[in-house]
Design a protein that fits this description.
Elements: H1 7-11, H2 15-28, H3 35-47, E1 52-56, H4 59-70, E2 77-81, H5 86-94, E3 98-102, H6 113-117, E4 124-130, H7 139-149, E5 152-156, E6 164-165, E7 168-169, E8 176-180, E9 194-198, H8 201-211, E10 215-217, E11 220-221, H9 232-241, H10 245-262, E12 276-277, E13 283-286, H11 290-299, H12 328-336, E14 337-340, H13 348-358
Parallel strand pairs: 2-3, 2-4, 4-5, 5-8
Antiparallel strand pairs: 1-9, 6-7, 6-12, 8-9, 10-11, 13-14
Helix pairs in contact: 2-9, 3-9, 4-5, 4-8, 10-13
The structure holds pyridoxal-5'-phosphate.
Pyridoxal-5'-phosphate (PLP) binds near residues 84, 159 and 192.
Family: Belongs to the DegT/DnrJ/EryC1 family.
Pfam family, one: DegT_DnrJ_EryC1
GO molecular function, one term: transaminase activity
Length: about 375
């Protein structure tokens, strides 16, 4: 049996280090917003050669607090990909803003820059890009459009830790970048965690306030804040794993390379241009008979996942929040996509086995 994911195996190489961190944590007895959070913020900033990182409770909150920091007028429009995990769109709704869904490029699955231009109205305030599956969006034209129209850019980097476009790291292009360290992400905590990269000390200070009840000074609250602090214990675990992020990504890239080289048959593999350093949070293929393929693989002992089975516009939760429900490219991706095993816990031998079985799938 080859699992899609096994978090216990994935964290095995870090086990000793993590236990040591937990012992230190217990000995110290400082549980909330301590040194581990500050140090992780510094180290995560240094990894990106950035100055300002604020740790928050999770990836959704990272998106929400980034938007809150922008202080857009109620009802302002935020451009967002139609092909994304629902969290991206939820963050816009939670801030009282209007999500405007834009279709992806059918080859990269990421938001199509050409279609952003035509979605801009006089109410547009921001573009929220998602570097989906671990591949950066085409940031040059997107930043150009944003500059032209005076729009903020927020990057959803939940699936793209360490991904690059033209040698520049995801999370360093926009005004804000939201990261999730949900356990399955390329940099995963042992629980919920998130962070925001921002460009100014003023924004960082604002987000620090927002994550802690809007308080600058203890018991003095100047804005209507949240409780969205990065947990001290999770920060201490993340500090242990951050130095291995590139190794984790390179492992996933090496597994993806096997799929690229060895998979034949009518599977559509991801399109990765030479400007893109893909980190394969998810390695997906498209196949017209996706459900039959998934069952075939499971019968042969290979677990797969679907990211995602229901397109955002078809989610009950969004029915009152969208003005348009017709997104054929995104729908087609949702209907045909299948995510194959490609994690830090898999070996090359696992992937060769998956390939061998996949190549025997006859249509
Ligand atoms: C995981 C994910 C999120 C949300 O992160 P959480 O930490 O689970 O809140 C947001 N956007 C995308 C694209 C994700 O994959």
């Amino acid at each position: 049996m080859i699992p899609y994911e096994n978090l216990k195996t994935l964290n095995k190489p870090f086990e000793e280090k993590l236990r040591k961190k937990f012992d230190l944590f217990l000995d110290k007895g400082w549980y909330i917003l301590g040194q581990e959070v500050s140090l992780f913020e510094e180290e995560f900033a240094a990894y990106h050669q950035e100055k300002h990182v604020v740790g928050v409770a999770n990836g959704l909150d990272a998106l929400i607090l980034s938007l809150k920091c922008c202080k857009f007028s109620p009802g302002a429009e935020v451009i967002v990909p139609s092909n994304t995990y629902i969290a991206t769109i939820l963050s816009i709704i939670h801030c009282g803003l209007t999500p405007i869904l834009v279709e992806p490029d059918s080859k990269t699955y990421n938001i199509d820059p050409a279609k952003i231009q035509s979605a801009i109205t006089d109410k547009t305030a921001a573009i929220m890009v998602v570097h989906l599956y671990g591949q950066c969006c085409e940031m040059d034209p997107i930043m150009e459009i944003a500059t032209q129209h005076g729009l903020k850019v927020i990057e959803d980097c939940a699936q793209a830790h360490g991904a690059k476009y033209k040698n520049q790291l995801a999370g360093t292009f926009g005004d804000f970048a939201a990261f999730s360290f949900y356990p399955t992400k390329n940099l995963g905590a042992l629980g919920d965690a998130g962070a925001i990269i921002c460009k100014s000390e003023a924004d960082a200070a604002q987000i620090r306030q927002l994550r802690n009840y809007g308080s600058e000074k203890k018991y003095h609250n100047s804005v209507v804040g949240y409780n969205s602090r990065l947990d001290e214990l999770q920060a201490s675990f993340l500090r242990e794993k951050l130095p291995y992020l590139d190794e984790i990504n390179n492992h996933k890239r090496a597994l993806a390379a096997i799929y690229f080289q060895e998979l034949n048959g009518d599977f559509i593999k991801p399109h990765v241009g030479s400007d893109f350093h893909h980190v394969y949070h998810i390695f997906n293929i498209l196949h017209p008979e996706r459900d039959r393929l998934k069952k075939y693989l499971l019968d042969q002992g290979i677990a797969t996942e679907i990211h995602y089975p229901v397109a955002p516009q078809n989610q009950l939760a969004l029915k009152d929040y969208l003005t348009k429900f017709d997104y054929p490219i995104s729908t087609k991706i949702h209907e045909t996509t299948l995510s194959l095993p490609c994690s830090f816990a898999h070996t090359k031998a696992d992937i060769y086995q998956v390939v061998e079985i996949l190549n025997k799938f006859n249509t």
